[in-house]
């Protein structure tokens, strides 16, 4: 009972598999959730990979298939061959999907909530951690979009001047109008 409350890495809680994660100013947005970055108390990279257990029914299929093939005469052997072929196909499927590689970025919040962003690519989660670390240790608001499916990081580097935001800003020595120089 006490271990239920003290378990540190429970993967059954708030696992979120999202394709887009956005950082806008001082907030992080993903999967219908918005959190203030100032409320993040910790980040942890988790290895959520697991090996699927061997299916017991395959042993029974092989045993029954061999028994039908070796012990019974005549046309019953065909059922043994079919069962062994099916068991072979199931074993092949098991071997292909035996190891499920997944990683998670656990975000510990001051409220006690611990959402886990899951993905099969460890490097993109490390990049998210690094960007969040830089934002947490810097006063400058940033706009970053992470596309986890395409493994892309897009940072909005537009300059905000008073009430104009997202506008093009040309610096340097420009003579004449800008349109003719582009």
General description of the model:
The chain is built from five helices and eleven strands, in the order αββββββααβββαββα. It has 182 residues and is an alpha+beta fold. Among the domains are: 53-99; 114-156, no CATH class. It has a five-stranded antiparallel sheet, covered by helices on one side. Strands 1-9-8-5 form a four-stranded mixed sheet, covered by helices on one side. It has a two-stranded antiparallel ribbon with strand order 6-7. A hairpin with a 4-residue loop joins β10 (142-147) and β11. α2 packs antiparallel against α3. The chain is rod-shaped, with a radius of gyration of 27 Å. The termini are far apart.
Write the element-wise H/E pattern from the N-terminal end onward. HEEEEEEHHEEEHEEH
Give the rounded overall mean pLDDT.
79
Strand order of the largest sheet: 4-3-2-10-11
Beta-strand content: 25-35%
| Share of helical residues | 25-40%
How many DSSP H or I helices? 5
Radius of gyration: 27 Å
CA-based shape: rod-shaped
Largest sheet: 5 strands, antiparallel
Termini Cα gap: 68 Å
State the low-pLDDT regions, or none: 1-12, 177-182
Structural class category: alpha+beta
Number of strands: 11
């Amino acid at each position: 009972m006490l271990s239920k409350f003290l378990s540190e890495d429970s993967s059954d809680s708030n696992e979120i598999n999202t394709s887009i994660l956005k950082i806008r100013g001082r907030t992080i947005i993903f999967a219908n959730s918005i959190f203030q970055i100032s409320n993040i108390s910790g980040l942890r990279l988790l290895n959520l990979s697991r090996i699927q257990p061997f299916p017991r029914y395959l042993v029974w299929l092989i045993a029954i298939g061999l028994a039908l093939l070796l012990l019974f005469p005549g046309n019953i052997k065909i059922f043994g061959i079919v069962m062994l072929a099916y068991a072979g196909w199931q074993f092949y499927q098991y071997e292909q999907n035996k190891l499920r590689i997944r990683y998670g970025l656990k975000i510990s919040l001051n409220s006690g909530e611990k959402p886990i962003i899951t993905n099969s690519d460890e490097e993109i989660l490390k990049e998210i951690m690094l960007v969040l670390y830089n934002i947490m240790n810097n006063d400058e608001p940033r706009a970053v979009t992470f596309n986890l499916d395409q493994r892309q990081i897009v940072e909005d580097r537009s300059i905000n001047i008073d009430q104009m935001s997202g506008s093009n800003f040309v610096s340097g020595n420009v003579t004449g109008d800008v349109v003719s120089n582009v």
